[in-house]
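Support request, priority: normal
Reporter: lab tech (M.K.)
Component: structure prediction queue

Hi team, I submitted a job for Zn-dependent hydrolase from Candidatus Thiodiazotropha endoloripes yesterday, and the status page still shows it as pending. I've pasted the exact input below so you can check whether something in the sequence is tripping the parser. The sequence length should be 417 residues. Please let me know if I need to resubmit or if it's stuck on your end.
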Amino acid sequence: MSAKPLQVDFPRLKSDVEALAAIGRADDQGIYRMAFSEGDMQARNWLRERIVQAGLELHQDGAANLFGRLAWDPDKPSVMVGSHIDTVPGAGHLDGALGVLCGLEALRSMKEQGISLKRPLELVAFSDEEGRFSGMFGSQALCGDISPQWIHAARDLSGVGLTEAMAAQGLDANEALSAARSPESLHAFVELHIEQGPVLDELGSSIGVVEGICGLKRWDVRLTGVANHAGTTPMLMRSDAFQGLAEFSVEIGRILEEHGGPQSVATIGRVELQPGAANVVPGEARFALEFRDLEESVLYDLSDAFRRTLSAIARRRGLMFDFKVVSELAPVSCDQRIRQLIESTAQAFAYNHHQLPSGAAHDTQQLARITRTGMIFVPSKDGRSHSAAEWTSWNDIQAGANVLLNTLYELANEESP
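Reply from support: The job had stalled in the queue. We restarted it manually and it finished. Here are the results:
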């Protein structure tokens, strides 16, 4: 690190955060910039203008990922920084957007200060990180993880296809196949993001040094019993699917304690009972089981324990049990060298910092397939996110931006690892 750490122009960054937050904001104070919606396109146009005003080279690839480039040289591997500016419906103003704006400010600051760089820097705003059309379209496309079949099949919850939505904005979804980057074209990728959880806020830490991103498994589970009259069927003669579910839910804590790790979590987030009448013993219980951890081996152990427990409960209660794997994401570890740079920069500024995993998925999880990655977290007040109540203090935002700026500087000037 340079003798005196670099600092961003914070009033300018604050102005950018406030300007982007106004785009797509509705009367309920939530932000509506779903991928390829009018709000999303308006935000993209605003970002284009800011990239050009900063004197960066503007580029858009086939997946509509938007780039700002500094000291661009296609023959040199670049250091990439960014996140996304699309949102879930009724979102807060920082999720994804803060990472893009802090990345923009970092590149803009280095350009204005005439800082010499050994390798190029790239800002990226990825398309559809929030999964309107399933997955993380922009970063998956950049990593070469989509196919013509994937593009054709991608639809939102209303049945609108990705191809249709992009065409309405003058874009060709099939061009996303040309967005793939080779591992040789990237030196590293860094993403700044709000934590979206309560840990840093509770600890009073301004900076989170992300160890890795938890993998997840999501199952659609079904317990099948016998629907029967709730008044005439004795308790000992029932095959009650809900009672099987209730027993399993109580077992989750034990399973995590015996087979999980310190970061393991499991959630039953959706339940459907059939036939769903107050006076009928439930004959079927379907529910979504999701579990996450930072270690692939732990996820395997949890899978085995959940399956065996469900099977035993079903057998004891006279139920049938089956499940379908709906989604799987492998955990990824952040690069040790980048983690050290983030931590040393936080120490240079005397920012309180803490190492922690990310329980949520991010574009970094995709980029880790092709390059070294690192993540910087800033606190989320009360752990709130994906809502209008999302908030991070300006002091913590400034701290995150300064750490990001210096981390990028070091990566852009380090010797090849």
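Residues 244 and 313 are 6 Å apart (CA to CA). The chain has two domains: 10-213+331-413, 215-329. Let us know if anything else looks off. Ticket resolved.
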